[in-house]
Amino acid sequence: MGAIAAAVVFSWLGMVLAISFLEAPLKFRAPGITIPLGLGIGRLVFRALNGVEIGLATLVVAAVAVDPPGPASLTALGVAVAVLTVQSLLVRPRLRRRSDAVLAATVAPPGGMIDRSHAHYVYAGLEVVKVAALLAAGIALQIGSVVG
Fold it and tell me: What's the rounded Cα separation, in Å, for the pair 24 and 116?
């Protein structure tokens, strides 16, 4: 089960890296992408990513419940799941309200660009923590599945 849990964790890690650290920053640099279009795309992509992340977190939690790994793996997984929970329940709703306001033109983006809110920085900081936790969990799970 440790190898399966590690594979799920590394899949989750790859998705977060690809979306949060590649797609999201590059989207607004594409020719012809307006703020409303970029926000609309971002909302769809992050809603989908969040759903997939919840599914992968559920799978990995089930896998480690069946075959518990060592404390390092469990701690790192706990951090990743806790971060995902905070992002899903607290930060994403604030980001959604902010993008609703921008799309409704109640918050004017200065100079045509979106003024990043505090919630954006919190989300990005949590993504860095989640990436580190997933990397640590995946490595610990893989080492445990090779050794065990």
Answer: 13
Separation between Cα atoms, residue 54 and residue 12, nearest integer Å: 10
Q: What is the DSSP letter of 22?
A: I
Asked whether the beta carbons of 73 and 64 are under 8 A apart, the reply is yes
Count of other CB atoms within 10 angstroms of residue 27? 15
Structure-token match 């799941």, residue found: 81
Report whether 61 contacts 43 (CB < 8 A): no
Q: With CA atoms as reference, report the closest residue to 24 among 5, 3, 50, 2.
A: 50
Looking at residue 117, its amino acid is: S
- Residue partners of 72: CB distance under 8 A and separation at least 6: 136, 140
pLDDT digits (tens, 9 = 90+) for 99-135: 888 888 755 555 555 556 788 899 999 999 999 999 9
pTM of the predicted model, to two decimals? 0.88
